Amino acid sequence: MVKRKINKKKMLWIVLGLCIVTIAGFAITIVSIDSYQYRRNQKVMKGLLTDNVSSRTLVVFFSRSGNTELMARKITALKQAHLIPIQSKRNNIGVKGWIEALMDARKAEAEISPAKIDLSEYDTIYIGSPIWLYSPAPQVFEFARRNDFMGKKVVLFNSMNSKFEQKYIDDFKSIIEQNGGTFEKHIYIVRGRMTQQMDVDSFLKETEKLLTN
Q1: What is the pLDDT of residue 89?
Q2: Cα(144)–Cα(156) distance, integer angstroms
Q3: Residues in domain Flavodoxin-like (predicted)?
């Protein structure tokens, strides 16, 4: 009887250990893919640099691994727009940043820089972020809440692995409208799961297709 209890306890520890190893392996895989995408995207973005002196269109974005930044820079080039990145002290590349992103997902508040921008010279504003747990990242909610969009047309753009929930898009739309803006539309690209994502060329072509349709 005692031996059977010991065996059960031993099996429980073995199962627990296997679960921990599996979770750790999954986290390491995700973080490794994130890091690879970041390095790859930094190289690609060198060819997407723009210098539009005068424009009535602004692209504002938050990006963690660089996928949304690629999308933002492609939109900037196609629309001959100005480009402003939203910076955040949290959610950087690495294990800590990945965990923070999971914790922050579906929130509507974040510490960002710049928090407020003079939008008076623009007619159309594209605001972009990745989708975290079916919701745009909190950084763009914070930006939307803090800025005056009176008389502006706003387009939300997102890149994601799988899907979004319309509730969070509607929440974002409400913030824009409360601050005087007109929510024009939501455009997005589903890149696919982490191990089976579309390549960069296809991603950029899909971005261009979204803007011409």
Answers
A1: 79
A2: 10
A3: 57-213
Query: Can you give the residue ranges of every domain in the chain?
Result: 33-212
Q: What is the pTM of this model?
A: 0.76
Which structure tokens are listed for 61? 């974005």
140, 158 Cβ separation under 8 angstroms = no
Higher pLDDT residue, 70 or 48? 70
The per-residue pLDDT for range 109-127, each reduced to its tens digit, is: 888 999 999 999 999 999 9
Q: How many whole angstroms from its chain centre is CA 103?
A: 14
Between helices 2-45 and 95-104, what is the axis angle to 10°? 100
Distance of alpha carbon 67 from alpha carbon 178, whole angstroms: 29
CA-to-CA separations, 181 to 147, 174, 210, in angstroms, rounded = 10, 9, 22
* Nearest CA-CA partner of 172 in 152, 154, 191: 154
CATH superfamily of 33-212: Flavodoxin domain (3.40.50.360)
